[in-house]
Amino acid sequence: MNGETENIIEVKDLVVKYGDRTVLNGINLTVKRGEVFVILGGSGCGKSTLLRNLVGLMRPYSGQIVIDGQDFTAMSDEERIELRRRIGMCFQGSALFNSMTVGDNVALPLREHTRLEESTIQIMTKIKLDLVGLGGFENYMPSELSGGMKKRAGLARAMAMDPEMIFYDEPSAGLDPIVGAGLDMLIRKMQSTFNLTSVVVTHEMESVKLIADRVCMLKDGEVVGLGGLETLKRLDHPFVQQFFERRPDEEGGDNAAYLNSLTGTD
Amino acid sequence: MAAVLGYSGRVTLNALYAGATVCVLMVETVNWMVVQPLRGKGLRLRSTVEHFVEFGVNSMPIVGMICFLIGVIMAMQSAYTLQKWGATIFIANLVGVSALRELAPLMTAILITGRNGSAITAEIGTMKVAEEIDALQVMGLNPTKFLVVPKFLAMVLAVPCATALAMFIMIFGGFVVGVYVLGIDATAYFNQTALALESKDLFTGMTKSVFFAIVICWVGVYRGFQVEGGAEGVGKQTTSSVVTSIFLIIIVDLVWTALFYFS
């Protein structure tokens, strides 16, 4: 709205609760236009919740999310529709509509949001599918695709409206290293070709090394590290170091306390 | 004591919340069915027609067969008593009036609930588990417009059509027993049926069927959106959908019967 702001997404003091349980406790971060921003963290740290809030699938308890200068959190559902055309999201399970072919899946946003002719839509569908390496798969049903192919189809659908921002929820989850690396290269290719701002939630370290411009690490609903990958590796925070070194939690502990808990005497 | 109060408080709050969700669903459905198309935001006609075929046309074999058999059963049951007075011709009255007023609308609604109401819940529930509903929202597409309105329109058109056919088939069931088993003259049976029926019977039956359709669709959809937690959740809500649907159908039946025949 106010020209080209450098920070396309700003999160200010975001607090998200599920009932009484606080999942995100005052998150502050910014995403620069055109970068690949990775959100890292252990299981249950709130990274998927953060992503869901960024795309507006959840409303926060308090705090603000500003997307391209507009206060996303304060918008009504109708106002959000305009902004949502500029966003694409790749879900963890690809979330393709199982009742439609891959081609119809990719064409859906075009058919609903634009008044383009059917022939034009068909051409654009083919272009998007070629982009992700699924050229020729328009008439396949989602159930006929492998996991990696489904994710690519999901990405093609997210790209259908030529968005400015794409959100990825655990893109490499459940994929073998080769296919996963292919998807990472695709994310990088999208970013460099289209200057797409990409926000990726993941916990795969190898992916992060390949794709990240900046990284944010979450633990227990708080930001424990924010910056470039190298900066973060040198950060003197115990959890950050443990995460990067892939070190498991210490086992053992107080033997007497354990015995008591087993025998029920205490 | 505190536990009892707490429990009843929670139940009340949950019921109010559920009521609010249902009201929102109803408003949204009417919005996307009537208001938005007038603003040029379109209706998914192809999806509506596909659902109509599934709800109305594909249900007819089972609805037809069951209603025929019920007509037969009614004729046989009434013949048992009427034969004693040589008054078997009145089977035509009994079957005709019951079919139009009560049994055809009710049986059609219950069968379509079991068949299609559960399918609606399972479909929407599975989509919810697979994050497809989230995907719709993120793309800026309204799930009500996409999923609910086609089903709603199709149901409201299909159930009355199926009911009308069911009424006819049920009378035919009675006819078969009356003419071919009890030896009543075919023309006499036909004329007696026509004499017994008034337009009020047809009108009340058809009105009820429209409201049954509304119940089936909205309960099915509501339960579908309630699904959480994977396959078990889908199963649980699907069962709940059919049970709630049938219960509400009977309540609606009671209300309309009271309004038409008891006030």
Give the termini distance of chain A in whole angstroms. Answer: 63 Å
How many domains would you count in the coordinates of chain B? Answer: 1
Full CATH superfamily name of one domain in chain A: P-loop containing nucleotide triphosphate hydrolases
Order of helices and strands of chain A: EEEHEEHEHHHEHEHEEHHH
Q: What is the helix content of chain B?
A: over 70%
The fraction of residues in strands of chain A falls at: 15-25%
Average pLDDT of chain B, to the nearest integer?
93
Count of helical regions of chain B:
9
Largest sheet of chain A: 6 strands, mixed
**Judging by the overall fold, what is the CATH architecture of one domain in chain A?**
3-Layer(aba) Sandwich
Query: What coarse outline of chain B follows from CA principal-axis ratios?
Result: elongated
**DSSP summary: helix tally of chain A:** 10
Provide the fold topology.
The complex is a heterodimer of chains A (266) and B (263).
Chain A: E1 7-18, E2 21-32, E3 36-41, H1 47-54, E4 62-67, E5 70-71, H2 77-84, E6 87-90, H3 102-113, H4 118-131, H5 147-159, E7 165-169, H6 177-194, E8 197-202, H7 205-211, E9 214-219, E10 222-227, H8 229-233, H9 238-245, H10 255-263
Parallel strand pairs in A: 3-8, 3-9, 6-7, 7-8
Antiparallel strand pairs in A: 1-2, 1-4, 4-5, 9-10
Helix pairs in contact in A: 3-4, 3-5, 4-5
Chain B: H1 2-38, H2 45-57, H3 60-82, H4 91-129, H5 132-138, H6 143-181, H7 186-196, H8 199-225, H9 231-261
